[in-house]
Write a structure and sequence with these properties.
The protein is an alpha/beta fold. It has helices at residues 17-26, 41-46, 48-64, 81-105, 165-169, 185-196, 216-228, 321-335, 364-369, 385-389, 418-430, 435-439, 450-459, and strands at residues 3-11, 31-35, 109-112, 114-119, 122-126, 134-143, 147-149, 162-163, 177-181, 200-205, 232-235, 237-245, 248-255, 258-264, 266-269, 273-275, 308-310, 349-351, 356-361, 374-380, 396-402, 408-415. The protein folds into three domains: 3-148 and 274-335, FAD/NAD(P)-binding domain, CATH 3.50.50; 162-271, FAD/NAD(P)-binding domain (3-Layer(bba) Sandwich); 355-459, Enolase-like, domain 1 (2-Layer Sandwich). Helices cover 30% and strands 26% of the residues. The protein starts with a strand and ends in a 12-residue tail after the last helix.
Length: 471
Amino acid sequence: MANIKKQALVIGAGTGGYPCAIRLGQLGVDTMLVEKDKPGGVCLNWGCIPSKALISASKLYEKAQHATDMGIEFSAPKVDMSKMQSWKAGIVKKLTGGVQSLVKTNGSTYVTGTATILGPNKVRIDYPDGKESDTVEAQHIVVATGSVPIAIPGFEIDQKRIVDSTGALDLDRVPESMVCIGGGIIGLELGQTFQRLGTKLTVLEGADRILGACDADLAKVVHKQIEADGGRILTKAMAKGWEERNGKAVVKAAVGDQIEEIEAEVVLVAVGRRPVTKGFGLENTKVAVSDRGFIEVDKQKRTNVPSIYAVGDVVGQPMLAHKASHEGEVLAEVIAGHNAVDDARTIPNVVFTEPEIASAGLGEQEAKDAGYEIQIGKFPFSVSGRAMAISETKGFVKVITDKKDNRVLGIHIVGPEASDLISEGALAIEMGAFAEDLSLTVHPHPTLGEAVMEAAKHAIGEAIHVPNRRR
């Protein structure tokens, strides 16, 4: 057993861990990154990237079926799920291979192995090929172990009949029908993906509406789209169990005071994710963990143990890849001795449903609960020339401002390319912009981005292309 000395050791090569290791290398800190599975973590291998690849393919398939509306005719599109999976896998392979290369070229060491914390400055590494374990003594230990899907009683995941998000992304066929347990982001992104490919979708949501993390008026647009595409959404519905019957899963759900049985070829369990804080020796330290299972950290990502830090899903919501990456880079600066803190004003959120949803800053109810008197500006894509030209007119942009001084508190978008448009909103929140900053910025025409400008103008009563409220 070799005894290796490092300045920093990072556990987990996901979107929190690998940017941290890369930045540490750039800053001249002797660093080792340890990953027991595939480089890139959940996001690159089983989450963000593969799901967006399938979402993109399914949207193209759906648009192709309506190309005749634009005067384009060709034979009806067909789905080859095997080819689609191969295409998706190729994208994942390129990105994950790039992670190892980037870590190494920036001066850090990448190791495939299982890390176990033995104490505040000591970690054992066990190798998958049977090589003798090593011990690493590190001044700084970074925990970036991520999260895993939450299981629910009565629905044991077998990745065949009962699948989680990982299993859904690897399906080699388009199911005839699917029950999605959970009307949150992951469930609806995947559920709508297969719905566009022809799957009959039923969503079971325990709350009184889907997409509880989004403003209600944005969620309604997605709700209507799912139903318009032939899906069912049952709210205040609790999945109680299932049984195999006639070659299908029959899910029993309590809907109000009734028990309903729903047949499905596949059941997708997507009720959220939980942090990974066990199985790697964290209990050998005195690191504080919250009642919800998250590692407690300060704005510099330090735990209560001076030599141990944590970033990403394992430290709390929102569980987003870009939040983890930002935290990892901030922490690298901290370890290198720089005066850095995680002081981001907003972490933008994107939901790749149909249509897309994206938000930055405070939601409408959040702003009210925080004591603000607010003004709201809205601009519908139904009157956007660019949205008409690409035949995607559902949804709107909503700008929330402080009535006192017109400062932008939040920007929320549901509609085409919301995921790309929201970066302007994040910048507006980060720089403390006022509605006038957005409205006086000349936006190119014809573009979807004009909707952000028009919504800001509407908030202050100066919109040109929609009626303003009397002031």
